[in-house]
Amino acid sequence: MNKIFKISALTLAATLALSACGKKEAAPASASEPAAASAAQGDTSSIGSTMQQASYAMGVDIGRSLKQMKEQGAEIDLKVFTEAMQAVYDGKEIKMTEEQAQEVMMKFLQEQQAKAVEKHKADAKANKEKGEAFLKENAAKEGVKTTASGLQYKITKQGEGKQPTKDDIVTVEYEGRLIDGTVFDSSKANGGPATFPLSQVIPGWTEGVQLLKEGGEATFYIPSNLAYREQGAGEKIGPNSTLVFDVKLVKVGAPENASAQQPAQVDIKKVN
Question: Which one of 3.10.50.40, 3.60.20.10, 3.40.50.1220, 3.30.70.270 gives the CATH number of domain 145-252?
Fold first, then answer.
């Protein structure tokens, strides 16, 4: 939907810059936004006239942008924000020039980006330490084996079919979790088994799937250096995250009447 109203270029730039720095996507409407969700799905006439409904829509638009900034750690003073907006709307004298506003916003951006970088570094350090502790304990569990690269795996069902090489196309069913149990991706959620070249996914997958035969199932425990390393991926996979995948190798080779394609999510794609 085309936006009728836009917040200032500087405020929008701040939102986008902070979002990019944090490597997060805008969250969809959820239970945390009941009013917006209700208005979108219900009878908007309860808000009032068309002008009032449009005003509400503009408020939601700006509110979402500010909420996104808040989620990146950049809170604002809503009282001061509203005061300034009201002054401009009423044509009253404002307390800073355009040049001063630009200087303030640039300083604000720099401070917030610096905070985001420091948080990323802290998260990377914490995740790496947690992952190493998890893998050390996991390595001693029954049935878990560790390869020379550091990949850990546990075969839960022996397959009897073809065994792939790194140059093969494979079809798999899978579920991916963080070490705290949070599910971040699954073939079921994406509509069914995923088909892709085995050479074009994260190293832990390329190595792990080659250990299976068709029909085989395993759990892979993938250290961060064989996954997304310090950059992380998406909203849920933080920097230096150790990942856990339950995998079933359905088929080796390209499926009939279909071209190989990457899974809908980015959570097993190869890091560039």
Answer: 3.10.50.40
